[in-house]
Amino acid sequence: EGVQPQEYVLIKMEIIPPFPSQLKVLEGRKVYLAAATLRPETMYGQTNCWVLPNGKYGAYEINETDVFIITQRAALNLAYQKLSRVPEKPTCLLELAGHDLIGLSLKSPLAFNETIYSLPMLTILTDKGTGIVTSVPSDSPDDYMALQDLKSKPALRSKFGVKDEWVMPFQVIPIINIPEFGDISAEKVCIDLKIKSQNDKDKLAEAKRLTYLKGFTDGTMLVGEFKGKKVQEAKPLIRNKLLETGHAVTYSE
Ligand code: A2H
């Protein structure tokens, strides 16, 4: 972990009822997969959510109405940031494995896709964020490669019980132009660097380094309410809008 605290935006990805059997005890509540992001301005381009199949998660009461599915570690941190029903104490309604979360139907704020699905990503770290990641393959090399892996490898889909219709209809959506990399920067950089899979750690680190700073300094929004504005300008506006409308909360660690 860095010396500076990192402030994330937690995107509330709502589980659309009816809930599957392993989540039935939560039925009737507002239940969200809460995804930690540093790029709230990219939420238009969400194609799916990522969970770690072997990760441990829980359904935690955030207030009288909302339940977040996140790691225990994140729930404890949130409890000390005034985001728990009982002050400074996470209350877990249900323990879950990442496997239990694959294939949930979700509605996520700003996403052009009305319904998206939770899918397995093998490189999620359990000691960062909430252990839940939203996927924006146009602008995140990790997301682009993990989605490519699922699309191109039927054996990987079947290993995790992933149905074709949770993956195959979802195309990469151009949302930000970066002069050097075009309208789908993650795809361009992954192809240029000849990245083979989500496990190609060193090359992915280089791809992220190349796109991350440039996206912020040189990017222009192609879509949404702030279309035509620089990412630098749009980012805080979109962040604040997500927070004010109750579609997201902030989280530091
Ligand atoms: B970002 P940093 Cl479009 N394990 O959100 C692995 N990755 C995680 C994670 C975890 N436990 N928690 C969050 N993340 C991802 C969007 C995005 C992100 C775009 C482009 C780049 C990007 C959509 N995914 O991050 O190590 C989340 O993905 C590039 C760094 O704290 C989060 O933001 O700097 C980012 O990593 C946080 O990474």
CATH architecture: Alpha-Beta Complex
Please report which band the strand proportion falls in: under 5%, 5-15%, 15-25%, 25-35%, 35-45% or over 45%: 15-25%
Q: Please tell me the overall pLDDT.
A: 97
Determine Rg (CA atoms, Å): 17 Å
Give keywords.
253 residues, alpha+beta, Isoleucyl-tRNA Synthetase, domain 2, 23% strand, binds ligand A2H
Please summarize what this structure is.
The protein is an alpha+beta fold and 253 residues long. The chain has seven helices and twelve strands. The protein has one domain: Alpha-Beta Complex (Isoleucyl-tRNA Synthetase, domain 2), CATH 3.90.740.10.
Structure notes:
Strands 1, 2, 3, 4, 5, 6, 7, 8, 9 and 12 form a ten-stranded mixed beta sheet that branches. Strands 10-11 form a two-stranded antiparallel sheet. The chain is of the alpha+beta class. The mean pLDDT is 97. It has a single domain, classed as Valyl/Leucyl/Isoleucyl-tRNA synthetase, editing domain (Isoleucyl-tRNA Synthetase, domain 2, Alpha-Beta Complex), CATH 3.90.740. It has seven helices and twelve strands. The longest helix has 18 residues, at 201-218. The structure holds ligand A2H.
